[in-house]
Amino acid sequence: MKKRVHNFSAGPAILPEEVLAEIKEEFNGYQDIGSTIIEISHRDKTFLDIAENAESSVRRLLNLGDDYKVLFMQGGATLQFSLIPLNFAHKNARASYAEIGSWSSKAAKEASKVCDLEICHSSKENGFNNIEDLSDWVISNNSKFVHYCKNETIQGIRIPYDPNFQLPTFVDMSSCLFSEDIDVTKYDFIYACAQKNFGPSGITLIILRKTLLEKCDQSLPNILRYDMHAQENSMLNTPNTFAWYVAGKMFNWYEKNGGVKEMEKKSIEKSQILYDLIDLGEFYQNPVLKSQRSINNVVFTIKDSNLEQLFLDKAKKYDLHYLKGHRSVGGMRASIYNSMSKESVVALRDFMQDFEKQHG
Ligand SMILES: Cc1ncc(COP(=O)(O)O)c(C=O)c1O
Protein backbone atom coordinates (compact mmCIF):
# COMPACT_ATOMS: atom_id res chain seq x y z
CA MET A 1 0.00 0.00 0.00
CA LYS A 2 1.23 3.51 -0.79
CA LYS A 3 2.12 5.86 2.06
CA ARG A 4 -0.98 6.73 4.09
CA VAL A 5 -1.57 10.05 5.84
CA HIS A 6 -2.99 10.59 9.33
CA ASN A 7 -6.61 10.91 8.23
CA PHE A 8 -8.91 12.78 10.64
CA SER A 9 -11.86 12.93 8.25
CA ALA A 10 -15.30 13.07 9.89
CA GLY A 11 -16.76 10.75 7.29
CA PRO A 12 -16.31 9.02 5.01
CA ALA A 13 -13.48 8.16 7.36
CA ILE A 14 -10.45 5.88 7.46
CA LEU A 15 -10.66 2.10 7.57
CA PRO A 16 -8.12 -0.28 9.10
CA GLU A 17 -5.30 -1.30 6.78
CA GLU A 18 -5.99 -5.00 7.43
CA VAL A 19 -9.55 -4.58 6.21
CA LEU A 20 -8.47 -2.64 3.13
CA ALA A 21 -5.84 -5.30 2.34
CA GLU A 22 -8.43 -8.07 2.60
CA ILE A 23 -10.79 -6.23 0.27
CA LYS A 24 -7.99 -5.62 -2.20
CA GLU A 25 -7.06 -9.28 -2.15
CA GLU A 26 -10.68 -10.33 -2.63
CA PHE A 27 -10.96 -8.04 -5.62
CA ASN A 28 -8.69 -10.48 -7.40
CA GLY A 29 -11.66 -12.82 -7.11
CA TYR A 30 -13.92 -13.63 -4.16
CA GLN A 31 -13.35 -17.16 -2.82
CA ASP A 32 -13.68 -19.47 -5.84
CA ILE A 33 -16.66 -17.81 -7.54
CA GLY A 34 -14.62 -16.35 -10.37
CA SER A 35 -16.05 -12.85 -9.83
CA THR A 36 -15.74 -10.06 -7.33
CA ILE A 37 -18.44 -9.52 -4.75
CA ILE A 38 -19.86 -6.48 -6.55
CA GLU A 39 -20.54 -8.48 -9.70
CA ILE A 40 -23.00 -11.03 -8.35
CA SER A 41 -26.66 -10.96 -7.37
CA HIS A 42 -27.61 -9.93 -3.86
CA ARG A 43 -29.87 -13.01 -3.88
CA ASP A 44 -27.00 -15.39 -4.60
CA LYS A 45 -26.02 -17.69 -1.73
CA THR A 46 -22.52 -16.14 -1.63
CA PHE A 47 -23.92 -12.71 -0.88
CA LEU A 48 -26.70 -14.01 1.39
CA ASP A 49 -23.98 -15.58 3.56
CA ILE A 50 -22.18 -12.24 3.76
CA ALA A 51 -25.41 -10.50 4.77
CA GLU A 52 -26.23 -13.15 7.37
CA ASN A 53 -22.73 -13.04 8.86
CA ALA A 54 -22.84 -9.24 9.07
CA GLU A 55 -26.09 -9.38 11.01
CA SER A 56 -24.87 -12.14 13.36
CA SER A 57 -21.78 -10.12 14.08
CA VAL A 58 -23.81 -6.98 14.89
CA ARG A 59 -26.00 -9.08 17.19
CA ARG A 60 -22.98 -10.40 19.09
CA LEU A 61 -21.23 -7.03 19.27
CA LEU A 62 -24.27 -5.24 20.67
CA ASN A 63 -25.70 -8.16 22.58
CA LEU A 64 -29.01 -7.91 20.71
CA GLY A 65 -31.98 -9.97 21.81
CA ASP A 66 -34.47 -11.64 19.45
CA ASP A 67 -36.87 -8.79 20.11
CA TYR A 68 -34.77 -6.53 17.86
CA LYS A 69 -34.73 -6.49 14.08
CA VAL A 70 -31.59 -5.47 12.19
CA LEU A 71 -31.99 -3.63 8.87
CA PHE A 72 -29.49 -2.37 6.31
CA MET A 73 -30.91 0.46 4.22
CA GLN A 74 -29.77 3.11 1.75
CA GLY A 75 -30.35 6.87 1.82
CA GLY A 76 -27.92 7.62 4.65
CA ALA A 77 -28.88 8.72 8.13
CA THR A 78 -30.66 11.64 6.47
CA LEU A 79 -33.36 9.43 5.01
CA GLN A 80 -34.11 8.26 8.54
CA PHE A 81 -34.88 11.86 9.54
CA SER A 82 -37.94 11.62 7.25
CA LEU A 83 -38.84 7.94 7.52
CA ILE A 84 -39.05 7.94 11.31
CA PRO A 85 -41.83 10.53 11.61
CA LEU A 86 -43.52 9.25 8.44
CA ASN A 87 -43.77 5.76 9.88
CA PHE A 88 -44.33 6.45 13.56
CA ALA A 89 -45.92 9.90 13.91
CA HIS A 90 -48.28 9.93 10.95
CA LYS A 91 -51.60 11.77 10.80
CA ASN A 92 -49.90 14.72 12.49
CA ALA A 93 -49.26 12.86 15.75
CA ARG A 94 -46.96 14.46 18.29
CA ALA A 95 -43.28 13.52 18.48
CA SER A 96 -40.63 14.95 20.82
CA TYR A 97 -37.24 15.99 19.49
CA ALA A 98 -34.21 17.35 21.31
CA GLU A 99 -32.09 19.95 19.50
CA ILE A 100 -28.60 19.41 20.85
CA GLY A 101 -26.47 20.07 17.78
CA SER A 102 -26.65 20.34 14.00
CA TRP A 103 -27.77 16.79 13.23
CA SER A 104 -30.53 16.49 15.82
CA SER A 105 -31.76 19.96 14.74
CA LYS A 106 -31.87 18.82 11.13
CA ALA A 107 -33.84 15.74 12.15
CA ALA A 108 -36.32 17.94 14.04
CA LYS A 109 -36.72 20.25 11.07
CA GLU A 110 -37.54 17.37 8.77
CA ALA A 111 -39.96 15.93 11.32
CA SER A 112 -41.78 19.26 11.52
CA LYS A 113 -42.95 18.72 7.93
CA VAL A 114 -44.63 15.48 8.87
CA CYS A 115 -45.73 15.48 12.50
CA ASP A 116 -46.73 17.72 15.39
CA LEU A 117 -43.20 18.56 16.50
CA GLU A 118 -42.43 19.16 20.15
CA ILE A 119 -38.94 20.42 21.00
CA CYS A 120 -38.43 18.68 24.33
CA HIS A 121 -35.02 20.23 24.95
CA SER A 122 -32.87 22.73 23.08
CA SER A 123 -29.30 23.70 23.83
CA LYS A 124 -29.16 26.07 20.85
CA GLU A 125 -29.03 29.15 23.09
CA ASN A 126 -25.83 27.99 24.77
CA GLY A 127 -24.19 27.22 21.42
CA PHE A 128 -24.87 23.47 21.78
CA ASN A 129 -22.17 23.20 24.45
CA ASN A 130 -24.13 21.78 27.33
CA ILE A 131 -27.04 19.31 27.27
CA GLU A 132 -29.57 19.21 30.09
CA ASP A 133 -30.03 15.91 31.88
CA LEU A 134 -32.46 13.68 29.99
CA SER A 135 -34.71 13.45 33.05
CA ASP A 136 -35.31 17.23 32.77
CA TRP A 137 -36.53 17.18 29.19
CA VAL A 138 -40.18 18.22 28.89
CA ILE A 139 -42.18 15.59 27.06
CA SER A 140 -45.95 15.50 26.50
CA ASN A 141 -47.91 12.46 27.59
CA ASN A 142 -49.35 12.00 24.12
CA SER A 143 -45.99 12.00 22.34
CA LYS A 144 -45.34 8.95 20.13
CA PHE A 145 -41.58 8.90 20.68
CA VAL A 146 -38.54 10.89 21.71
CA HIS A 147 -35.64 11.48 19.30
CA TYR A 148 -32.09 12.71 19.82
CA CYS A 149 -28.54 12.26 18.57
CA LYS A 150 -26.09 10.53 20.93
CA ASN A 151 -22.97 12.11 19.46
CA GLU A 152 -23.15 15.40 17.58
CA THR A 153 -20.38 15.05 15.01
CA ILE A 154 -20.14 18.78 14.23
CA GLN A 155 -20.20 20.25 17.76
CA GLY A 156 -18.23 17.37 19.35
CA ILE A 157 -20.72 16.81 22.15
CA ARG A 158 -22.32 13.57 23.32
CA ILE A 159 -24.77 12.15 25.79
CA PRO A 160 -22.51 9.72 27.61
CA TYR A 161 -25.17 7.60 29.31
CA ASP A 162 -28.21 5.53 28.29
CA PRO A 163 -31.73 6.99 28.47
CA ASN A 164 -34.60 5.84 30.61
CA PHE A 165 -37.69 7.33 28.98
CA GLN A 166 -41.19 5.99 29.40
CA LEU A 167 -41.84 6.25 25.66
CA PRO A 168 -40.14 4.77 22.57
CA THR A 169 -36.64 6.18 22.27
CA PHE A 170 -35.16 6.83 18.82
CA VAL A 171 -31.48 7.73 18.62
CA ASP A 172 -29.10 8.74 15.84
CA MET A 173 -25.78 7.04 16.65
CA SER A 174 -24.12 7.70 13.30
CA SER A 175 -20.84 8.86 14.78
CA CYS A 176 -20.63 6.72 17.91
CA LEU A 177 -22.18 3.29 17.32
CA PHE A 178 -19.53 0.62 18.12
CA SER A 179 -17.31 3.08 19.97
CA GLU A 180 -19.57 3.68 22.96
CA ASP A 181 -20.70 0.79 25.11
CA ILE A 182 -24.50 0.97 25.29
CA ASP A 183 -27.31 -1.01 26.86
CA VAL A 184 -29.43 -1.58 23.75
CA THR A 185 -32.49 -2.48 25.82
CA LYS A 186 -32.77 1.20 26.78
CA TYR A 187 -33.40 2.11 23.14
CA ASP A 188 -36.23 1.24 20.77
CA PHE A 189 -34.72 2.46 17.54
CA ILE A 190 -31.04 3.07 16.79
CA TYR A 191 -29.64 4.15 13.45
CA ALA A 192 -26.18 4.89 12.12
CA CYS A 193 -24.77 5.60 8.69
CA ALA A 194 -21.73 3.47 7.89
CA GLN A 195 -19.18 6.01 6.78
CA LYS A 196 -17.74 6.80 10.22
CA ASN A 197 -17.32 3.51 11.99
CA PHE A 198 -18.14 0.67 9.61
CA GLY A 199 -17.26 1.28 6.02
CA PRO A 200 -17.95 3.39 2.98
CA SER A 201 -21.05 5.57 2.66
CA GLY A 202 -24.16 4.12 1.10
CA ILE A 203 -25.51 1.91 3.84
CA THR A 204 -27.26 2.64 7.13
CA LEU A 205 -27.71 0.22 9.98
CA ILE A 206 -31.05 0.25 11.79
CA ILE A 207 -31.77 -1.67 14.95
CA LEU A 208 -35.37 -1.51 16.03
CA ARG A 209 -37.65 -3.23 18.47
CA LYS A 210 -39.82 -5.67 16.51
CA THR A 211 -43.01 -4.41 18.18
CA LEU A 212 -42.50 -1.09 16.36
CA LEU A 213 -42.96 -2.81 13.01
CA GLU A 214 -46.68 -3.21 13.68
CA LYS A 215 -46.98 0.55 14.08
CA CYS A 216 -45.61 1.64 10.69
CA ASP A 217 -47.97 3.71 8.54
CA GLN A 218 -49.29 1.16 6.06
CA SER A 219 -50.48 3.82 3.64
CA LEU A 220 -46.90 4.75 2.75
CA PRO A 221 -45.27 3.43 -0.42
CA ASN A 222 -43.47 0.18 0.41
CA ILE A 223 -39.96 1.58 -0.02
CA LEU A 224 -40.66 4.02 2.83
CA ARG A 225 -42.02 1.39 5.24
CA TYR A 226 -39.80 -0.26 7.82
CA ASP A 227 -42.14 -3.25 8.08
CA MET A 228 -41.70 -3.91 4.36
CA HIS A 229 -37.90 -3.68 4.59
CA ALA A 230 -38.07 -6.04 7.57
CA GLN A 231 -40.32 -8.50 5.75
CA GLU A 232 -37.85 -8.63 2.85
CA ASN A 233 -34.77 -8.82 5.13
CA SER A 234 -33.44 -5.51 3.79
CA MET A 235 -33.70 -6.74 0.21
CA LEU A 236 -36.88 -5.02 -0.86
CA ASN A 237 -34.79 -3.70 -3.73
CA THR A 238 -31.14 -4.08 -4.71
CA PRO A 239 -29.01 -3.10 -1.73
CA ASN A 240 -25.55 -1.51 -1.81
CA THR A 241 -23.76 -4.85 -1.82
CA PHE A 242 -20.25 -3.41 -1.65
CA ALA A 243 -20.96 -1.26 1.43
CA TRP A 244 -22.73 -4.19 3.12
CA TYR A 245 -19.74 -6.47 2.42
CA VAL A 246 -17.28 -3.93 3.87
CA ALA A 247 -19.52 -3.36 6.89
CA GLY A 248 -19.38 -7.12 7.55
CA LYS A 249 -15.59 -6.97 7.46
CA MET A 250 -15.56 -4.08 9.91
CA PHE A 251 -17.83 -5.98 12.32
CA ASN A 252 -15.43 -8.95 12.12
CA TRP A 253 -12.52 -6.61 12.80
CA TYR A 254 -14.30 -5.32 15.92
CA GLU A 255 -14.90 -8.85 17.14
CA LYS A 256 -11.24 -9.76 16.59
CA ASN A 257 -10.09 -6.61 18.38
CA GLY A 258 -11.96 -6.87 21.66
CA GLY A 259 -15.47 -5.69 20.77
CA VAL A 260 -17.30 -2.51 21.73
CA LYS A 261 -16.00 -2.28 25.32
CA GLU A 262 -12.42 -2.26 24.04
CA MET A 263 -13.29 0.29 21.34
CA GLU A 264 -14.81 2.54 23.98
CA LYS A 265 -11.74 2.24 26.20
CA LYS A 266 -9.47 3.18 23.30
CA SER A 267 -11.72 6.07 22.21
CA ILE A 268 -11.68 7.56 25.71
CA GLU A 269 -7.90 7.19 25.86
CA LYS A 270 -7.32 8.71 22.40
CA SER A 271 -9.65 11.67 22.93
CA GLN A 272 -8.14 12.36 26.37
CA ILE A 273 -4.69 12.76 24.78
CA LEU A 274 -6.06 15.72 22.81
CA TYR A 275 -8.30 17.18 25.53
CA ASP A 276 -5.39 17.12 28.01
CA LEU A 277 -3.35 19.29 25.70
CA ILE A 278 -6.25 21.60 24.84
CA ASP A 279 -6.97 22.18 28.55
CA LEU A 280 -3.32 22.74 29.48
CA GLY A 281 -3.26 26.41 28.51
CA GLU A 282 -5.34 29.01 26.73
CA PHE A 283 -3.89 28.67 23.25
CA TYR A 284 -6.39 25.95 22.21
CA GLN A 285 -10.00 26.02 23.30
CA ASN A 286 -12.92 23.64 23.47
CA PRO A 287 -16.23 25.05 24.72
CA VAL A 288 -18.05 21.78 25.47
CA LEU A 289 -19.00 20.78 29.03
CA LYS A 290 -16.17 18.42 30.01
CA SER A 291 -18.39 15.48 30.98
CA GLN A 292 -20.17 15.66 27.60
CA ARG A 293 -17.19 15.99 25.30
CA SER A 294 -17.24 13.62 22.35
CA ILE A 295 -14.79 10.73 22.37
CA ASN A 296 -15.03 10.53 18.55
CA ASN A 297 -14.96 14.13 17.32
CA VAL A 298 -12.60 16.43 19.15
CA VAL A 299 -13.33 20.05 18.17
CA PHE A 300 -11.08 22.97 19.05
CA THR A 301 -10.32 26.53 18.07
CA ILE A 302 -7.19 28.64 18.46
CA LYS A 303 -7.60 31.68 20.69
CA ASP A 304 -6.13 33.84 17.93
CA SER A 305 -8.36 32.65 15.10
CA ASN A 306 -6.05 34.26 12.53
CA LEU A 307 -3.69 31.34 13.15
CA GLU A 308 -6.18 28.66 12.14
CA GLN A 309 -5.43 28.55 8.42
CA LEU A 310 -1.71 28.44 9.16
CA PHE A 311 -2.35 25.57 11.59
CA LEU A 312 -4.20 23.60 8.90
CA ASP A 313 -1.58 24.30 6.23
CA LYS A 314 1.31 23.33 8.48
CA ALA A 315 -0.48 20.25 9.77
CA LYS A 316 -0.82 19.01 6.21
CA LYS A 317 2.94 19.24 5.76
CA TYR A 318 3.22 16.75 8.63
CA ASP A 319 0.70 14.42 6.95
CA LEU A 320 -2.07 15.43 9.36
CA HIS A 321 -5.08 15.79 7.05
CA TYR A 322 -8.76 16.77 7.11
CA LEU A 323 -8.63 18.73 10.37
CA LYS A 324 -10.82 21.61 9.25
CA GLY A 325 -13.98 21.97 11.32
CA HIS A 326 -17.38 21.62 9.66
CA ARG A 327 -18.12 24.53 7.31
CA SER A 328 -21.05 25.61 9.50
CA VAL A 329 -18.96 26.12 12.67
CA GLY A 330 -15.34 26.62 11.54
CA GLY A 331 -12.38 25.90 13.82
CA MET A 332 -10.77 22.48 13.81
CA ARG A 333 -12.05 18.97 14.31
CA ALA A 334 -10.15 15.73 14.73
CA SER A 335 -12.40 12.75 14.09
CA ILE A 336 -10.84 9.74 15.76
CA TYR A 337 -13.20 6.84 15.12
CA ASN A 338 -12.36 3.24 15.90
CA SER A 339 -10.03 2.76 12.91
CA MET A 340 -7.85 5.68 13.99
CA SER A 341 -4.63 4.55 15.69
CA LYS A 342 -3.31 6.01 18.92
CA GLU A 343 -0.06 6.77 17.02
CA SER A 344 -1.92 9.15 14.70
CA VAL A 345 -3.53 10.91 17.65
CA VAL A 346 -0.15 11.26 19.35
CA ALA A 347 1.31 12.66 16.11
CA LEU A 348 -1.43 15.30 16.11
CA ARG A 349 -0.90 16.10 19.80
CA ASP A 350 2.86 16.52 19.22
CA PHE A 351 2.23 18.79 16.25
CA MET A 352 -0.22 20.89 18.28
CA GLN A 353 2.35 21.24 21.05
CA ASP A 354 5.03 22.40 18.62
CA PHE A 355 2.65 24.80 16.91
CA GLU A 356 1.78 26.36 20.25
CA LYS A 357 5.47 26.72 21.13
CA GLN A 358 6.09 28.55 17.85
CA HIS A 359 3.02 30.76 17.80
CA GLY A 360 1.74 30.95 21.40
C1 LIG B 1 -24.74 12.31 13.66
C2 LIG B 1 -25.02 12.33 12.18
N1 LIG B 1 -26.28 12.15 11.76
C3 LIG B 1 -26.59 12.15 10.46
C4 LIG B 1 -25.63 12.34 9.48
C5 LIG B 1 -26.03 12.35 8.03
O1 LIG B 1 -25.61 11.17 7.43
P1 LIG B 1 -25.77 10.91 5.86
O2 LIG B 1 -24.88 11.85 5.17
O3 LIG B 1 -25.37 9.47 5.72
O4 LIG B 1 -27.20 11.11 5.52
C6 LIG B 1 -24.31 12.53 9.88
C7 LIG B 1 -23.26 12.73 8.85
O5 LIG B 1 -22.18 13.19 9.06
C8 LIG B 1 -23.99 12.54 11.26
O6 LIG B 1 -22.74 12.73 11.68
C-alpha geometry? globular
The top level CATH class name of the largest domain:
Alpha Beta
Strand tally is 14
Q: How many domain modules? A: 2
CATH third-level topology of the largest domain: Aspartate Aminotransferase, domain 2
Strand content is 15-25%
Could you report the average pLDDT, rounded to the nearest whole number?
Answer: 97
Note the total helix count.
Answer: 9
- Output the helix-strand order: EHHEHEHEEEEEEEHHHEEHEEH
**What is the CA-based Rg, rounded?**
21 Å
- Spatial strand sequence of the major β-sheet: 2-10-9-8-5-3-4
Structural class: alpha/beta
**Uncertain runs with pLDDT below 50, 5 residues or more?**
none
What small-molecule ligands were found?
pyridoxal-5'-phosphate
**Corresponding CATH superfamily of the largest domain:** Type I PLP-dependent aspartate aminotransferase-like (Major domain)
Distance between the termini: 38 Å
Largest sheet data:
7 strands, mixed
Notes on the structure:
With 360 residues, the protein is of the alpha/beta class. It has two domains: 18-256, Aspartate Aminotransferase, domain 2 (3-Layer(aba) Sandwich), CATH 3.40.640.10; 259-359, Aspartate Aminotransferase, domain 1 (Alpha-Beta Complex), CATH 3.90.1150. 34% of the residues lie in helices and 16% in strands. The protein contains nine helices and 14 strands. The strands form four sheets. A seven-stranded mixed beta sheet has the order 2-10-9-8-5-3-4, with helices on both faces. A three-stranded antiparallel beta sheet has the order 11-12-14, covered by helices on one side. Strand 3 (94-99), helix 4 and strand 4 (116-122) form a beta-alpha-beta unit. The longest helix is centred in the last third of the chain and has 22 residues, at 259-280. The two termini are 38 Å apart. The model has no long low-confidence stretch (mean pLDDT 97). The protein binds pyridoxal-5'-phosphate (PLP). The site of pyridoxal-5'-phosphate has 11 residues, from helix 3.
